[in-house]
Each structure stands twice: as structure tokens, then as C-alpha cells.
């Protein structure tokens, strides 16, 4: 059987492209090398799936993609943030908006997104072939002629959508296969490397804070005692270092700095207050708890998990009663709260990256249709493209947008050819 559209890769972009092409009347087959679809989708957003970002100003939204913003203008005008949210709701998946405009399923479960996409494809009659490992893509006479499977089978279609992802979380199947296939047929690939990666730090006490997260924290980056830049957001302490949106979004720049020397960071837990204001607040808290031990009296000010670390860094005995804490000790504690210094040991590898940088050079893709400029019946979507973006729902919106546009265009192409 020759299908109208063949989708390679059953992640979010591939499922969206398959469902949309089928909705447009195409006979669609989806090839997925894993035993089941959407393996990586189910772990996005800590298992909750941050499906988009509710930034409805297209210019502000596109600014998050850097140089790729211009490329994405046309695709986003065809299927933008509001379109995605309306799509979720129309297919029975309510959403909610949280801090920093992050949009999640109301169920707090990525399974809801998976169920919605599978239902979308099923309603269009998409043929899903799990366990279908692709060996390569065949090109002939300036077109894609077919897909070779490792079991020896051949899949033929009028149009093909490549949605194999990048190289992040390779255990989910994102092992860079698509990059190798595209290079063999002449596409230029920017070398992929991990992006949005947690940071490893040298200080061993960091493990004591594992699991503690803080909103509105300021993270400043230093090299050779010079402050390079700073950002504010949500920070998560882990057993190896720092994660959460703030650390992830700064990881690429930190990685660049590490190539030229040692890098340290300063965590400011109270960026809206200065040392004097923190001291005044501590004084008020201490006044109400003057006979308690200091280690217990501080729990009104910050998370209990953080207290012993702060006291150790400030060199204050937590066993002493609050009423015996000196002003100098209070000020030192305030300074530590404003400046927890950590030495960056490096970044975690691809197995921990949220997305990868690199991929197909955008000059080789027609942004209006997500079509290869080298092969008129090949469409490229999602993380296969060389598009950097921050965390916060932007990666999945990229999948919905490019998948929808490619699915529509591939279906139209198959009708005309």
C-alpha cells in the first residue's frame, strides 16, 4: 500500500502531524520505533506536561526563540498559542495557567495529553505501527522515495514527515537517527548538543537541599570574580546541583563560559529585599521566638530543609537560643540569604537534557509549510530543527505548531501528487 502521508516518529510533533494530516483527509501511517507512542511526552514537565506558554502577544512569544523567531512567524500565525489551547479544549482536555504563564493539563498529568493525541489520531483513522525501527530514508530523482525498516520492509508514501526529535533523553528513543538520515541525503545539520540541562555543583552539601524549590530566586553568574549576567525565576535544588526553569534556561550560556574558565553562581533567595530589610524581618521573627533554639526559630522565615545549611554557611550555632544571637550574626545570616555561592562543576549530559540544540539548518526549510527545500515531499518538525528555546512550554508549542503546519501541507501535497 502506498500511503498519502508517512510520519516517522511518534512523539508530540509526530502525533500532531499525523492527526492533522488525517483530519485533512489523508491516509496516514505513523512509524514509531518504541513499543508505544509518546515516551518522552509522558515525562515532560515532571510528568505534568507543560503544553504551552500563555503569552498571546506573538512578538513577545517569538522573541523567546532568538534568531529562529523570524522563521517561526509564519507557522505560528497558522497555529499559535490560542489555537493550541482551543485545540486541547475542543478535544476534551481542559487546561490551567500557572506561574510564568505555563499552561498545564487541568489533570496535572501528561497522560491526559497522550490520551488526547491518541484519540485525535484514532478519529482520523491513522495507522500506527509501533516497534517499527527505521534503517534509513531513500531519495531518488529529487524526492523521497521510501522508508526502509530494519526488518526489511519498505514503507512508501506520497509525502513524508520526519519527527524523530533530537538527542535529549536517548532512553526514550531520541538518539539522533533523523540527523544521520538527513545528512546522508544532503541536508546540512548543525551538530546537536544538550540544551536546557541541569547544573552540577562541587559543594557536597547541596545534596542536603535535594527537592527544595523556590520561586522568584535570583541566580547570578560569575567568572573570574566578574558578574556576567543574572536572571530571576524558579530554582530547584537537586542531589547533584541546580535544576528548575531558572537553571535550565541559563545552562547554555554557562556551558559557553565553562569553556574559558571556572564559573560560580550566587543564589539570592530574597532578591526583592536588601541585607538591612532582611535583618529587620529576622529581628521581628526572633522577637516572637526569643526563647527557642535558633535552628527552630528560623523556620518561620524559610523552608526547614534550608535552615541547617544557612546556619552552617553563616557559621552560627543553631543550638543557641534566639535571644543570644548577635546583630553581627544576624547580618551575616542575611548576607548568606542574599548570596549562597556555588561552584559549577559542569552540566549533566544528554540523558538529562530537556531538549537539544542543533539540527537541520533553517535555511533549508520552507517555514510556510515546514517543507524541505531539497525534497518537495519531505517535511521537518519539532526538535529535528535547529531552534533554541527556553523552558516554560515553548518546546511543546513548537511541536504543536510545526506538526499542525506540516500535517496540513503534507496532506495537501499528497492530494496534488
Report on the structure:
The protein has helices at 12-23, 58-63, 69-78, 81-90, 110-123, 177-184, 244-258, 275-288, 294-297, 307-313, 327-338, 394-416, and strands spanning 2-8, 28-32, 52-53, 95-97, 102-105, 127-130, 134-140, 143-149, 154-162, 189-195, 199-201, 213-223, 226-237, 241-243, 263-268, 340-347, 355-360, 365-366, 371-372, 378-380. The chain is of the alpha+beta class and 417 residues long. Strands 1, 2, 6, 7, 8, 9 and 20 form a 7-stranded mixed sheet that branches. The chain has a 6-stranded antiparallel barrel with strand order 11-14-13-12-15-16. The protein is elongated and about 85 Å long. The model has no long low-confidence stretch (mean pLDDT 92).
Derived structural class: alpha+beta
Query: Main beta sheet: strand number and arrangement?
Result: 7 strands, mixed
Spatial gap, N to C terminus: 16 Å
Number of strands: 20
What's the overall average pLDDT, rounded?
Answer: 92
Shape: elongated
Low-pLDDT segments: none
What share of residues is helical?
Answer: 25-40%
Count every helix, treating DSSP H or I runs of 4 or more residues as helices.
12
Measured by DSSP, the beta-strand proportion falls in 25-35%
Q: Give me the Rg, rounded.
A: 25 Å
In short:
This protein is α+β, with helices and mostly antiparallel strands and 417 residues long. It contains 12 helices and 20 strands. The longest helix is centred in the C-terminal third of the chain and has 23 residues, at 394-416.
